[in-house]
Amino acid sequence: MQIAQDTVVVIHYTLKDDAGATVDTSDGGDPLAYIHGNGNLVPGLENALEGKRAGDKVSVKILPAEGYGDYDKGLVQRVPRRSFKGVADVRPGMQFQVQSEQGPRSVTVTSVAGDMVTVDGNHPLAGKNLNFDVEVVEVRAPSEEELAHGHVHGPGGHHHH
């Protein structure tokens, strides 16, 4: 069976940056299971996997436009430390969920200077090339429930509690 719209795909993957450092990998853990064509992966990776079958290996370099987007300086803001109610010690690297005009967004603290905190709303991989090595483990038809919910159930997928 080939990877196509709404097929369940199970992959092992390693993501490296342009310097060759591993950013994320499923090695040593469960493979990732997702429903193809539903925006669960960055567009460039879904496009590269289209038509592949179990056992196929894919190496692909994805540019920011097909990955996590270009780096947007407009998403970097300085906010007063008092904005972080209940957080005693705000430090660079901390992540927070904030409400924005586009809905909830994750921001990362990049610096703290006096009473001002600089936060960056870009995805940590925005503006970066994504170098994926992927092995397709399984391709199958989804259950009606998986299709209705938009995610895979069971190993490597979503668990309802």
Task: Calculate Rg over CA atoms.
Answer: 19 Å
* Quaternary assembly: single chain
User: Tell me, what is the CATH class of the largest domain?
Assistant: Alpha Beta
The helix fraction, in percent, is under 10%
* Count of the domains: 2
Helical/strand content category: mainly beta
SSE order, one letter for each helix or strand: EEEHEEEEEEH
The overall pLDDT, averaged over residues, is 92
User: What coarse outline follows from CA principal-axis ratios?
Assistant: elongated
Distance between the termini: 31 Å
General description of the model:
By secondary structure, the chain is mainly β. The protein contains two helices and nine strands; from the N terminus they run βββαββββββα. The chain folds into two domains: 8-68 and 126-149, Chitinase A, domain 3 (Roll); 73-120, Thrombin, subunit H. Strands 1, 2, 3, 4 and 9 form a five-stranded antiparallel β-sheet that branches. The two termini are 31 Å apart.
Task: Give the key terms.
Chitinase A, domain 3; 2 domains; 8% helix; 5-stranded antiparallel sheet; mainly beta; 161 residues; 38% strand; 4-stranded antiparallel sheet; single chain
